[in-house]
Amino acid sequence: MLEPLKRGLPPLDPAAVSGSASCALPTRFEAVRGARQFTRSTLDTWELGDRFDDVALVVSELVTNALRHALPDDTPQEPEPAVRLHLMHWTSRLVCAVRDPSHDRPAARGTEEDFAAESGRGLFLVESFSDSWGWHPLAGALHGKVVWALFRIRGEQ
């Protein structure tokens, strides 16, 4: 069974950030398509289009999980969006992070009977297609958590 990771990102030099992009997502499942489109255009801008398939799969799973598990049924439309996608690019790493208003830790299913289910494998896919992943609660005036996935790029070991 996969254990959810509660940890911050591995050390990344903020001065080495090559680019960052962020988008607010509506609290509807159509947001997954928008997140994929945003990811494609951002990766193309950063000349990382060759990583689109893996990154888009992970982004789709993280956004779907936020919409399915982190939002109450009566989530109001607030001035600050409830779900937000962040993409950050360093010279040798790419991070995708999804912020949501829930404080609940991500929970991965891992038993064999779950593998045959039509849903519930999202975090297994995140773990399989990214180099590492984790989550952390937001601090200060922000409420909720961030679930992130890291991808090594350009031959980093």
UniProtKB/TrEMBL annotation:
Signal peptide: none annotated. The keyword Amino-acid biosynthesis does not apply. Gene3D superfamilies: Histidine kinase-like ATPase, C-terminal domain. InterPro entries: Anti-sigma-factor_SerPK, HATPase_C_sf, HATPase_dom. GO terms for molecular function: ATP binding. It comes from the Bacteria. It holds the Pfam family HATPase_c_2. Keywords: ATP-binding, Kinase, Nucleotide-binding, Serine/threonine-protein kinase, Transferase. Residues 26-135 form the Histidine kinase/HSP90-like ATPase domain. This is ATP-binding protein. It comes from Streptomyces sannanensis.
